[in-house]
Write a structure and sequence with these properties.
The complex is a heterodimer of chains A (256) and B (328). Chain A has 256 residues and is an alpha/beta fold. Helices cover 22% and strands 23% of the residues of chain A. Chain A contains seven helices and eleven strands. The N terminus of chain A is likely disordered. By secondary structure, chain B is an alpha/beta fold. Chain B has a seven-stranded parallel β-sheet with strand order 7-11-6-1-4-5-12, sandwiched between helices. In chain B, strand 9 and strand 10 form a beta hairpin. In chain B, helix 3 packs across helix 4 and helix 5 runs parallel beside helix 9. Classes of the chains: A alpha/beta (256), B alpha/beta (328). At the A-B interface, helix 3, helix 4, strand 5, strand 6 and strand 7 of A face helix 3, helix 4, strand 7, strand 9 and strand 10 of B.
Amino acid sequence: MRASVRPALARSGTDRVERPLQQRLPIGRQGPRRELRLVGCLLHETPCVERIAVAPQQFGGGIELNSECRGIVRHTRKLSDHLFAGSDGRGIAAILKAFIQKGNYELILTGVQAEDGAAQVGGMLAAMLDYPFASLVNSIEILDGKTLRITREIEGGNKELNEIDLPCVLSIQTGINEPRYVGMRGIRQVASVPIPTFGAPDLGVNPEIVGPLAAKIRRVDYFLPAAGRGAEMLYGKPEEIADKVVELVRTKGGLS
Amino acid sequence: MASIFAYVVHKDGAVDDSAAELLSAARKIDPDEEPVAIIAGFGSDLDSVCETLQRSYREVWKISNEAFAYPNAELVRKALIKVLPPGSIVLVPHNHLGIDLSPGLSVKTNTPFVSDVLDIEGREGSWLKVVRQEFGGQISAHVMCDVSCGAVINIRPGAFKYLEASSGNGTIVDKSVEIGPISSGRRYLHTIVAESGDVDISKQPVLVSIGRGIQEQDNVAIAEQLADALGAVVSCSRPVVDAKWMDKSRQVGTSGKTVKPKVYIACGISGAFQHLAGLKGSPFIIAINKNPKAPIFQVADVGVVADLLEFLPILTEKIREARCVSAK
């Protein structure tokens, strides 16, 4: 059972974690004035849990050279252990925390949510690390190397402008940037690059806090959503259907 | 049974609709347990919100502090940790504040977190059985949550019955002094109000709304032609804005505009709840989608399974013909 294993590690989020930094932060080929390192997370169908992508100490050229991350960040680290399988969101956050504490990371980006819509790992990770957190982030600007200015998406299409201290965790909303995909050449170039792997002993993860036995959230089954009253389906040739639609629109006052 | 608390969201002195829905959700967890409302804020707005909540909740815990003049999830979390009894079940609306607040609150209270719950089916021992949705609402899942030590549960807005306020007169308990000084690594500056754009979709009687099914930017023109024929305008769902094919001001949904047209023609829109939440006033919904299993067909009045690129031009032509006939 993989309930809640992948929130915040979604592909949609990770595709977008590199670009905001490239676009919004003063990071060029010379590297940033102040060292920032990026931790991104990848959804991947592995027998264990997931991979974590870690950017080098400097951003710059060669970001497209990455292994199975397909262009997301330059360096990839895989956190993989059979003990991790079946972890809930809390377990995943605990694994990530263990890895992050081994480095001196200042900015940790996740996606807002995966296909399970739980939107939880980023916030849990931040709380475990005692870092500030912001969800639904749709723009990032670096101020002085200690603080970011970010906007969060809130209701009604409005945005909430905040300042947030580094180190912090941000969950990135879709639409923040244009994801870039790596060409086949780039993928081939890095196909044979080995990915360093960290297991539970390497990370110092207590086996009792991960895996299915530690999970306090368990998905029992899937089922089709209860049908609503359902639409009256129109059948026939397209022209016939269009005639019916026109009549309905007229009846409902949409064709004045 | 653990105490149940509802964290109530409010704005400009008005209680959010979710307050009544959290009450309904709490009764599904335990019909015999009267939940307590917790509310953080400041000034006269907070007082008026407390008075409103008194009518539905037997007890209202009020946390008044200037720091809560605008809700900052980190500060709210710190305050809740100080006042919540161990083992509490905390219900929070799954909105932009709940997404910010609840995962961290569950960590700090060492309780499990269940996100975006649509229904609560009851308890099996110490486990609570709830219903969630995944993959944009295309599939539901039963999820069990061990609530023996408490829990944080985010409730989907609109999913639970709205319980009208009774004539009750709940007690207001001021918990402000228990909070003490608090600070946050994140500071709210101000709200950037969405630009209204060239057209206000919230005031249109007819909307032709497009989703991911429109496939590419060039195809937006097909929807615009239909809208022109109808004298309507084009709105859209989130993926279209993310792809920058349309301006944010045209987006319908929780993170876009709330609209209340008479007729809503949903073209290639799957029907995720975030989108549907932006539709008010019971419009007549005509859904056109090539996926016969798209959730939009469950809520639409009329459904057409068709390829947009083929069907919309035909419909446009028929609308034009109908208008010509009417003009004669």
